[in-house]
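Record 1 of the preview.
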Amino acid sequence: MSATTPDAPIFDAAAWRLTEQEIALTRRARELGERVFAARAASFDREARFPTENYADLRDAGLLGVCVPAAYGGLGAGYRAYALTAAEIGRYCGATALTFNMHVCSCLWTGPLADAIDMDPAQRAEHERRRAMHYARIVEHGAIYAQPFSEGGSAAAGAVPFATTAVRDGDGWRVSGRKIFASLAGHADYYGILCTEADSDGTLARRNTLYVAVPASAPGLRVEGDWDPLGMRGTVSRTLILDDVRVAADEALMPSGLYYQAAVRWPHMFLTLTPAYLGIAQAAYDFTVRYLRGEVPGQAGDKRRGQAVKQHNVARMHLMLEQTKALWFQVVSEARVDPPREMMLRAYAAQYTVMENANELCQLAIRTCGGQSMLRTLPIERLYRDSRCGSLMLPWSADICLERIGHDALYAPGERD
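->
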């Protein structure tokens, strides 16, 4: 493969039995990534700058509406089609893929997930009316949605209610709280805020989680702090402060309390961070092969593929990548409402495997390519730093996945010692 040969798909269409929609969407993302995203990634990383130019290209390509149902003017991609598309973006710019996930989640939660969970007729009708408004913002006006999750406690992991609160105010709410690591902070048009409506006695309960879109221009909403992290620097995940922000009733992305039902019954949604890291894993492998073949621009005289140690390391990388892809593809293919226990164990395993193996592949890439790979003139050091962040990502961090796999493998639901 030469430097001018277009990249092969991460998942071959025939071998993995992709649908026509998946083939078209992944091709669109791959061509865009290879043509413009890859060249920009280094500057976004170095400057910790949001990939605004990439979002303009995503908008022009129609990909901001990738998971908006076709009936509302979007591309109508489902869960797997989105995941495959985002993985292709991630191999060229991890920060773009990771923030793109935050935007697309607003469409997945309000679309396929909402369609699969229980609502009474009045809730369903109201949801249809409201989501049409949100989808129109994306499809017709190119609006970008974010999904701030973390608060510095256990809420993002699903252990306790969100500390950000919503108090009824007429037909809307007053929202107050703080979200940390809020990707797209200062660059989104709307922030999908997860907050808790208190019971009449003031008690906060997870069942009362509210999911609302807060306009970036809303009085009382502000962005604070610096952003100078190890990796994923282009996500610009600064702190979001909500100080008695008035939110209209129609800004509800799901009916009150329905987010909790969706989170419990459609848990594969918490895997949507993994495509970015799968793309990084593929990029690390691709670069290593090209580097050792002397196909990287500026490195033409550095062919070292004949060394046994190089071949051994590339073989290890190939095995790890194929194992990771196979498990991940199976899990995103079987995502559904009310998954049985064995599917949940597999989902946790996929999350852990992608996040950990992406970084291990990048470590092997550095070791195999040698000292030049430490320099910022090559992308491997950025891929390594970006990949190291994956194991920390909530709600399913690497440690949480291990805890749940160990517990759920040994205990049936309701069992205790």
